UniProtKB/TrEMBL annotation, chains A, B:
This is 2-keto-3-deoxy-galactonokinase. Keywords: Kinase, Transferase. The keyword Cell inner membrane does not apply. One of its GO terms (biological process) is D-galactonate catabolic process. InterPro entries: ATPase_NBD, DGOK, DGOK_C, DGOK_N. GO terms for molecular function: 2-dehydro-3-deoxygalactonokinase activity.
Length: 307, 307
């Protein structure tokens, strides 16, 4: 612990709606220590952010010097710690120079919240993904193409010349959670198993006729009632139908494009399988690594900035 | 009360997932008394149905004779009072001759539960709507065309020669409730106002490109955050996008067809407006009247049946 305190140079944090992840960082870019907590933005009022953060990091802070803290995610939303106004596209992803600096009560920390990005028309917003994109571009500065970030609100992001040119959000992940866990389909989808064949067939089915989505979803319930369809098949079908409809709608973002999937393992694999069935072999990169890389890039930009 | 008891000939009931509606009927078809309760099928175990019913009707029952009770809806589901197995389409809607007769503890009632209808492929089911259809056909025996029954699970039902030929369910109403009240959009849709123009535009928008539904839905949140869009507009847009996507998917059911909408006022008006914008003036009939008419038709079939 004492060693961590001595080496601690700066702190990275991803403060989402449900969770907070913290990395205590050495100057070299090495992670000294990781901390996770469930004090997400959704459960806090603005004045609770600093005490919650200090509860988790205070014991690690050195005396006599100030540690920069770089935060991305929903902490910068209007209902968060302090609003970090969106950067409009087209633009490079935000870094320390566009961050919102927070006046803290404790002088041992110097807090920067990275802004999200916005698009005027079609109206769209992101908070958190822009930092993952910055991390990816730090390692792949010449990348030109589309980054797909699967999640609660999946993003398709067009990148050119290190800039976010345009993006579209599909609320596919949130729809999946609502439909599979809370609709009448929940009786036919509760399963920890997965049927990859049923998923692939449902992707194809929805891509060929996305308009009948609400009808094909109900059919999952009827298949269970009438033909004894298993819940593993039902669950994979809900996911396949929703992702298939999304792929049909996001076609301009992937057809003939250079694509990479940036996300967590399970959901990334589902998108990868769906795109692969369209003849697109797509590489994946892990989102947590990219988040940290993006926060590192933001910190480095601060360090190199004339003070 | 005594007069009701003397004239009471039979009882009609619509026992849904959330509510129970009862009509005490005179032989002439006149309604003597109405009763509503929130003891829906979803809150009862099979052995609770008879006591719940008796609690509501016992005081009205005559002594010395048995009163037939005709029930439609979810009381006949597998988890209901007793399973009334589905009638397969194509077929006339069920009536007393295909009803499931229940052995009751109290000999003053003779209970019949009307079955729902099922379709093998595409797999689909209904429970309750078939009785409304029977009611409509009792008054319109020569109707040939499509009945649209808007609701939690909207049905499009193809009728020919008094038979249900085929049908499709779209879970549009349930999706609306989940998205407007429980998703991230709830912050941008909570309103008792309604914007008819925004609804109409959203219907058009979704009909022209239903695949981007999950993206256009998220845009409602972004429009509120970035451009201050009102919740009345947001709510109407969610409804318009979902109904527009449904109309695109249900096109074979309404294009060039003779259509009638059978449902409750508010939702029927929304579907009527959406279809009217497609150049289809569609009449509406009220669902409660049709439910009762369908139960009456079932009762009359029992009366005319050789005992």
């Amino acid at each position: 612990m004492i060693q961590t305190t001595e080496q601690l140079t700066w702190i990275a944090a991803d403060w989402g709606t449900s969770n907070l992840r913290i990395w205590l960082m050495a100057d070299t870019g090495d992670v000294l220590h990781r901390i996770s907590a469930d004090c997400g933005m959704g459960s806090l009022t603005p004045d609770q952010f600093e005490p919650e953060l200090m509860k988790l990091i205070a014991e690690h802070l050195p005396n006599g010097r100030t540690v920069p803290v770089f935060i991305c995610g929903m902490a910068g939303a209007k209902q968060g710690w302090a609003e970090a106004p969106y950067t409009a596209v087209p633009s490079e992803p935000p870094n320390a120079t566009t961050a919102t600096r927070i006046k803290t009560k404790d002088s041992r920390i110097d807090v920067y919240i990275l802004p999200g990005m916005k698009q005027k028309a079609p109206a769209d917003v992101m908070r958190g993904e822009e930092t993952q994109i910055a991390g990816f571009l730090a390692a792949n500065p010449k990348f030109d193409g589309v980054i797909c970030l699967p999640g609660t609100h999946t993003k398709w992001v067009h990148i050119s010349a290190r800039e976010v040119v345009s993006f579209r959000t599909f609320m596919t992940g949130e729809l999946f959670a609502l439909i599979a866990d809370q609709s009448v389909l929940r009786h036919s989808t509760a399963s920890s198993d997965w049927d990859a064949k049923a998923f692939a067939a449902a992707v194809e089915d929805a891509m060929s006729n996305p308009a009948t989505l609400a009808s094909k979803l109900f059919s999952i319930r009827a298949e269970a009632l009438l033909h004894g369809q298993s819940n593993a098949v039902g669950r994979a079908k809900v996911s396949g139908l929703l992702i298939g409809a999304e792929l049909a709608g996001a076609r301009p973002y992937w057809l003939g494009q250079n694509i990479v999937i940036l996300g967590e393992d399970g959901l990334s694999s589902a998108y990868q399988a769906a795109l692969s069935a369209q003849g697109l072999p797509v590489p994946t990169v892990p989102s947590e690594t990219m988040t940290l890389a993006g926060l590192c890039a933001a910190y480095l930009a601060l360090e190199s900035k004339p003070q």
